[in-house]
Design brief:
Number of helices: 4
Function: Involved in sporophytic self-incompatibility system (the inability of flowering plants to achieve self-fertilization).
EC number: 2.7.11.1
Keywords: Disulfide bond, EGF-like domain, Receptor, Signal
Helix content: under 10%
Number of strands: 36
Mean pLDDT: 89
Domain EGF-like: 286-322
Largest sheet: 9 strands, mixed
Pfam families: B_lectin, PAN_2, S_locus_glycop
Number of domains: 3
Radius of gyration: 26 Å
Strand content: 35-45%
Distance between the termini: 97 Å
Low-confidence stretches: 1-15, 434-448
Shape: elongated
Length: 448
């Protein structure tokens, strides 16, 4: 009895899973690391269903359906299924580089080495981040700077200019193949930063710029607060990044990019439901025909509550009436009346509840009020529209975004979105000032 009691007391310490590898103590193919603390994540070797290749990945420890959220060697697998790859290893070198090797000690994947003080150790953290630290505790490499297809709480999507890191999501080629597909979600930092989904060379979805509360193309984000979500967008010259957090530790949520759109759009937010024992789809994009990139062309407006969904901005007519009649609005719209910037007779109407236009070529001024931006836009004959850059800042100093040329990828929502002030000639301003549609398009300003 004494011997049995002693064994029971010693068992937890003997069976406690490790969370770290060090030089000379690699992770082998039949072993795993488990994050300390809540024990939320596992790092180990795995083979996707239907695959005969082995990868090093990270997955949830307490979700019974294995859900891989990060893969080290996604483009360079160890040949053979995980059950056949017991001799494979994940090691950290004295130069602080991670390496995945097969049973023959052939390295198939390696992270960048570092000149940091040695020795280094690699540890799986309880947020799902694999971190390589030197003996002073400084981070020399981390998985969160190299996302695969999944954004976890605290992980950033975007560009860290100071660190020289571009953090993008790249979908798996298929459910059985984690190698990179052509479907990529990336932050475009030209103009006013926004997230695009690319399928090869083609842009297929746009988040819209951040308005201080949310991306203008994801207006229902404000409804997430009741679920304990919080969102962070940083655009300070050192980085332009997006991340999210979940305050309730009981809520497991991830943002994932897939290459097929099965079950919803290419970008999907999932939450784990313990009661159902399954992942529930919380949000996805693209969601509808207006989420396609610029379905109504320049100066066209997409509205899913209208039939047809495409219409021209007030003061504009279809560029190709024949195509428009066939409900193909991709050619967009042209002005009915030319602008008269030289004589300062132009003015603005407002389009409410808008996903503002593609902002990759827009100009952002965070130091001007909305009225100052209106004056600047009127004086610039190339300026065609402006909008507030930050809906949460103090009144009068919110900054603005200004567009030139055609207004691409415009859509409106029933109750979300923001106000876009678009430029019109005086004759069209007068027409719309007195028509019944003034309830939607309000006459705002004319130059003095």
């Amino acid at each position: 009895m004494v011997l049995t009691l002693l064994l029971l007391l010693l068992l937890p310490a003997a069976s406690r899973a490790r969370d770290t590898i060090t030089p000379g103590q690699p992770l082998r193919g039949n072993d795993t690391l488990v994050s300390s603390g809540a024990g939320s994540f596992v790092l180990g070797f795995f083979s996707p269903p239907g695959s005969n290749s082995t990868y090093v990945g990270i997955w949830y420890a307490k979700v019974p359906v294995r859900t891989v959220v990060w893969v080290a060697n996604r483009a360079a697998p160890v040949r053979g299924a995980a059950s056949e790859s017991a001799g494979a290893t994940l090691s950290v070198s004295s130069e602080c580089a991670l390496a995945v090797a097969d049973a023959n000690a052939t390295v198939v994947w390696r992270s960048l080495s570092s000149s940091s003080p040695r020795p280094c150790a690699a540890r799986i953290q309880d947020d799902g981040n694999l971190v390589v630290s030197d003996q002073r505790g400084r981070v020399v490499w981390q998985g969160f700077d190299h996302p695969t297809d999944t954004l976890l709480p605290g992980m950033r999507l975007g560009v860290d200019f100071a660190a020289g890191a571009n953090m993008t999501l790249t979908a798996w080629a298929s459910p059985s193949d984690p190698s990179p597909s052509p479907v990529v979600a990336a932050m475009d930092t030209s103009g006013d930063p926004e997230v695009f989904i690319w399928n090869g060379p083609a842009k297929v979805w746009r988040s819209g710029p951040w308005d201080g509360v949310q991306f203008t193309g994801v207006p229902d984000t404000v409804t997430y607060k009741g679920m304990g979500f919080s969102f962070r967008f940083v655009n300070d010259g050192r980085e332009a990044t997006y991340s999210f957090q979940v305050r309730d530790a009981g809520i497991v949520s991830r943002l994932v990019l897939n290459s097929t759109g099965v079950g919803g759009g290419l970008m999907q937010r999932w939450t784990w439901l313990d009661v159902a024992g399954a992942w529930a789809l919380y949000w996805y994009a693209p969601k509808d025909q207006c989420d396609a990139l610029s379905p109504c062309g320049p100066n066209g407006v997409c509205d899913t509550n209208k039939v047809p969904a495409c219409s021209c901005l007030p003061g504009f007519t279809p560029r190709s009436p024949a195509s428009w009649a066939m409900r193909d609005g991709r050619d967009g719209c042209v002005r009915a009346t030319p602008l008269d910037c030289a004589n300062r007779t132009d003015g603005f109407l407002v389009l409410p509840h808008a996903k503002v236009p593609d902002a990759t070529r827009a100009v952002v001024d965070f130091n001007s009020s909305l009225e100052q931006c209106r004056q600047r836009c009127l004086r610039n004959c190339s300026c065609t529209a402006y909008a507030s850059a930050n809906l949460t800042a103090a009144p009068g100093r919110r900054g603005c975004v200004m567009w030139t040329g055609g207004l691409e990828d415009l859509r409106v929502y029933p109750s979300f979105g923001q106000e876009l002030y678009f430029r019109l000639a005086a004759a069209d301003l007068g027409t719309w000032q007195h028509c019944s549609s003034r309830r939607r398009y309000m006459h705002i300003a004319q130059s003095e």
